[in-house]
Amino acid sequence: MNLGGHVNYLLEFTYLVASILFVLGLKGMSRPESARKGMFLAEAGMAAAIIGTLFHEGIVTYEWIAAGLILGSVIGALMAIWVPMTAMPQRTALSHAFGALAAALVGIAEFSLHGQSMAAFTRGALGFEVMLGSLTTTGSLIAAGKLQGVVRGTPVQFRGQQLVNLLLFAAMVGCFLHLLAHPGAAVFFYSMVALGFVFGIMLVIPIGSADMPVVMSLLNSYAGLAAAATGFVLANNVLIIAGTLDGFSGFILSVLMCKAMNRSMRNVLFGGFGAVRHTAQTQGGEMREIRLDDAALQLAYANKVVFVPGYGLATAQAQHAVRELANLLEERGVTVKYAIHPVAGRMPGHMNVLLAEANVPYSELYEMDQINPEFPTTDVAVVIGANDVVNPDARDNPNSPIAGMPILEVDRAKSVIVLKRGQGRGFSGLENPLFYKPVSNMLYGDAKATLNSLTQAVQQV
Ligand code: NAP
């Protein structure tokens, strides 16, 4: 009996199951209601892929695999437990860096083992794998550093930068083309790797932290394509499928984020957004503060209240506090809705994840296009740590750097209560005329503490 053949079928079958689970997982993640299930399906897919690989006939020893599995699992578990929700974007960037480094290292190992004897197609795939893997590693590390604040967040720019980047890119691709013609040219191979690492840094430093989420999903896409190229090098089907899914979903996400900010990909990558600290525009009017009791009265006697969460809700971890206040208002017969802007917070779906954690019903979450027509009939719009996504300048001022970005039009509500700690700007660094409008009232303080106090105050009404 040919056991090897059966093992091979088993391996390919587990890969097929894994690939189907990845596709179903991605589909699940496209809607908040099914996102959690989607994550579980994708996890099961990854488990199937790992278990299947353990039967691979090419495995020489299990000791190194066991060591890698244990080390990787421990690091992954610790990151999942200890990294706070607010640091999730930089944690994700680190994961991309690890994934891309793995692809680059596999490529280097393959070159040193079979570089001379590889078929031309495999050599081409290897080149893509190593180039994308190395530039994504350093690019993702810089992105993580910018988001964590350990690398300067504002764009690092200098004269002739784009020319330098172009030359670096050309040199890297030049090494690749030379390798296609001369398989054993190790100097060119390792130069290509080194240039990839440098190019990754140079690609990301001129981009400001505000645009890091877009950069990250683009790097995610590169990491996926590097994994797909690894699949071609190793003749591994699950890597090809998973890498391609990752590559294209990352790219689509980048495009969607650019659309939600009304910016082109070119502007995000080369525009140096946030390089110049925007000077305060002179606003007509003044910011008016509202007393807690008055805010509670407005809420308690409203017919319809719309909560508008932003990045400040995430930093304050105020998702449970807003849910409690919403519950109380609903008990009093107030209609409560949540307005979700596609780029509120610091990563796609940031607000959905937080509100889901606090068990806010999905039926109360409204996307921008659904909720905007409702603001004129809203008695109170409560802005919780949101700033850029409610900045009316994007709609009204064609000279604003964020002109054309779709916004939540809270200024059309009958009354607006803005919860923030002080005069802090949004991530774009721009002044927000909303705060000066006659309809707006400021309620200063940490969002969570303010919401808790509001709940108590509404209970007294
Ligand atoms: P934002 O414009 O960054 O504003 C956040 C506001 O929250 C600040 O004005 C800050 O004011 C306040 N805040 C911070 N901590 C707080 C706390 N503990 N309690 C109460 N308030 C607090 O946020 P946003 O409106 O959500 O906009 C997101 C920005 O990220 C946009 O510019 C968007 O383009 C960008 N972005 C997001 C994504 C994404 O995927 N989500 C992708 C790319 C870019 P104080 O300091 O005065 O409190």
Task: Looking at this protein, list some descriptive labels.
single chain; 3 domains; about 60% helix; Rossmann fold; alpha/beta; 17 helices; about 450 residues; 6 strands; six-stranded parallel sheet; binds NADP nicotinamide-adenine-dinucleotide phosphate
The gist of it:
This protein is α/β, with parallel strands linked by helices and 461 residues long. Helix content is 60%, strand content 7%. Strands 3-2-1-4-5-6 form a 6-stranded parallel sheet.
Explain the overall architecture.
The chain has about 450 residues and is of the alpha/beta class. It is about 60% helix and about 5% strand. It has 17 helices and 6 strands. The chain has helices at about 5-30, 30-55, 65-80, 90-115, 120-150, 160-180, 185-205, 210-235, 235-260, 265-270, 290-300, 310-315, 320-330, 350-355, 370, 395, 445-460, and strands at about 305-310, 335-340, 365, 380-385, 415-420, 440-445. Strands 3-2-1-4-5-6 form a 6-stranded parallel β-sheet. β2, α14 (about 350-355) and β3 (about 365) form a beta-alpha-beta unit. α1 (about 5-30) runs antiparallel to α2. The longest helix is centred in the N-terminal third of the chain and has 29 residues, at about 120-150. The model has no long low-confidence stretch (mean pLDDT about 90). The chain binds NADP nicotinamide-adenine-dinucleotide phosphate (NAP). NADP nicotinamide-adenine-dinucleotide phosphate binds near residues 312, 387, 419 and 425.
